[in-house]
Amino acid sequence: MSIDTEVKVPLASPAAAGGTPSRPRRRSRGRIVVSAVAYLITFVILFPLLWIVLLSFQTNDNILNDPFSLSSLTLANYQQALETLNLLVMYKNTLILAVVSVTVGLVISYMAAFALTRMVFRSGRRRTQNTLRFYFLAGLAIPVYILLFPVYRLDIAFGLFGTYFALILPYIAVTIPFNILLLTGFLRDFPEEIEQAAVMDGVGLWRMAWKVVFPLMRPVIATLAILNVIYVWNEFPFAVTLINDPNMTTVSLGVSQFQGVYSVNYGAMMASATLVLLPQLAIYAAFQKQVIAGMTAGAVR
Amino acid sequence: MNWLTTRRHFTLMVAPALIIYSLYMIYPILYSLYYSFTNFDGVSAGGFAGLDNYRQMGQDDAFWTSMRNTGIILGIALFLLIPLGFLLAILLSGRVKGSGAMRALVFAPAIIAPILVGLIWIFILDPKIGLVNAFLLAIGVPAHPQWIGGPTLSPYSIGFVYLWQQIGFVLTIFYAGLRMLPRDVMEASSLDGASRWQQLRHIQIPMMRETFGIVTALVVTGVFKVFELVYALTGGGPVHLSEVMVSYMYHITFTTQQYGYGMALAVVVFVVGALASAATFLGNRRKGEVR
């Protein structure tokens, strides 16, 4: 009942509003204030992003001397950014790293999670599975920064330095614990009847894992894929440690070099930042619901 | 099921993940631990140094500064980020028009690469070209503080940028928690004439204890991962005054190539971070018992 009156009050005629004491009017005024505050805060939070985009169309002189006038519109910054930077190389490298490490990482995480939850030894004991699950989940507590130098040494020892695999292997390793956490959680609740029916039909292990169970796990896999791609896309510590070849530069590593590339041309620097920022925001806008759901699922689980 | 039971099949399924994970996650931890007790210089194993590296930390001012700065960022996260995130969640969970879109917009900074976040904020905080000081100049304030790059303000600025980056994420978790509260309690209380403030104080906040625990745990672990912001905004300077624990460890290891000392710092970062998280979890559990 209270909900109904609250919703109707602002729509009610002045006569009706006069009938009830000042309370509803105060409420609606309160709501205007609350809305205004909410809009203002949202604007303030988004402002830094808008500011970069706005200034990326200004001449360098204008940025330095009169940043608030926003007068001299120009595309020169973008021209210079595209000429100076190897944006395409950066995007290509990051895309290769993301596709390979996320695909391989999810495949092997799924295989391990399947074995840890759905496979039972003849003895019926689950000790091996439980120990291994704990061993994998312990990785959630490991900060990547500890890994940087040892992984650098490993990549040199294996002759991987300077190849994509120098980054792909650690990216896979770092995402395994969380992938296994979520996958084993969902696989444990998976109804056994479907498996049993498939066994009756003579389905083998491999087909069982990939043709019967995997399709039913698609929503979780999609969530993990999005989270893993975001991780690889934004990853910086490994990239800065393990890449020294300009042709191997990733997007985040490229961003860190903008300051050096244009020591004084701030307009071009902002244009470059915009060129990296906008695709990322566009992809976020497209997958916004899944990204938020995935991030919070990760947080709450 | 019996048909799945051979050890060979089980091993084949687990092996790929197990090998990569052991080699790139577990082995490095043991490696760091071992070399933190040596004078490893990157070429030869170096002599066994016992606890020398750890003793060195006691005399290393830059290390203590980095610890203090991590503490400052942690303080900003606990006392500003979490309350503000909660308030914003309350604000955007009401019947404000477009609150769904606003929640999505405010979340955006959390998915932008942290290194790009750092670069963007240079244009706002830089003493010469930054927006804040340009604004102060425009409205006639004579002081132009060195938000970044100066001797004192940098860690606070970094903490503030971290707040900006994370607030949408924190808001979203609080919002999810708010939505899980039973509706009838709120309705009953407003029928009983409880004010919005009373509802917040006596119903919503107490019932959200678990959500507060989750957010605190995430924020505490997140603070120990701040690295790119420092790297982009100040590079740790001037003279290591804005360094955080992780960035200082990175500097010692990769710039000055004192690998043994760097590994000791890595171990300490791990231990301090783990202790802070453990404290958060224990704190949550104790609060839960009082109830």
From TrEMBL, chain A:
Region (Disordered): 1-26
Pfam families, per the entry: BPD_transp_1 (PF00528)
Residue ranges of the TM segments: 32-57, 95-120, 132-152, 164-187, 208-233, 266-287
Recorded coiled-coil stretches: none
One GO BP annotation of this record: transmembrane transport
Similarity comment: Belongs to the binding-protein-dependent transport system permease family.
Protein name in UniProt: Carbohydrate ABC transporter permease
Biological source species: Streptomyces ferrugineus
From TrEMBL, chain B:
Biological-process GO terms, alphabetical: transmembrane transport
Sections of the chain in a coiled coil: none
Taxonomy, superkingdom: Bacteria
Domain ABC transmembrane type-1: residue ranges: 67-280
UniProt KW keywords: Cell membrane, Membrane, Transmembrane, Transmembrane helix, Transport
Transmembrane segments: 12-34, 72-92, 104-124, 156-178, 211-233, 259-282
Cell compartments where the protein resides: Cell membrane
Xref: InterPro entries: MetI-like (IPR000515), MetI-like_sf (IPR035906), UgpAE/MalFG_permease (IPR050809)
Protein topology in the membrane: Multi-pass membrane protein
Annotated GO CC locations: plasma membrane
Family: Belongs to the binding-protein-dependent transport system permease family.
Name of the molecule in the record: Sugar ABC transporter permease
